[in-house]
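Thanks for the sequence, V.! I ran KAD4 kinase right away. Repeating your input here for the record:
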Amino acid sequence: MASKLLRAVVLGPPGSGKGTVCERIARSFGLQHLSSGQFLRESLGGGDGESPRGRPVLWSCVMDGFGSILVAFLPLIPTSFRCGACTGFPRTLGQAKALDRICELDLVISLNIPFETLKDRLSARWVHPGSGRVYNMDFNPPHVQGVDDVTGEPLVQRDDDRPEAVAARLRKYKDAAKPVIELYK
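Predicted structure:
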């Protein structure tokens, strides 16, 4: 029996756990999870939001890329595919309006986490660059400090997760996300 496709977006500031929440929901209910961060890593060959030449990624290009995947992907979804959940996208009002032109959302989840909690989480976050696996030195540390559990390769701390960059990053998110959250209310 075919079931209706559920299209959901999970919004939240950096470090709020969007990816973790979606992965747990997907695993628990046998659903599909689409991550804009994963899309960027796979499309651009890096996990830091920069192009292979080290230039910042223009979000209009990301919208074109991610949006074209959604446009091409959604009509071809097999009946066994029950849910698509996007994390990390849309980040701006323009992206939200563009996404609304591509598909109708059934559910929007907005994660609201205290600033101090986010600051602590981000400052303690380290990643494996090749896979995007995330570790937190406070509550999800690797077995060996500074080394990926699976590959044994070194972990890195993203420049924007360093304590001095976190406050500016969270302010920027708050300013950009406010109209997106209002749109989806």
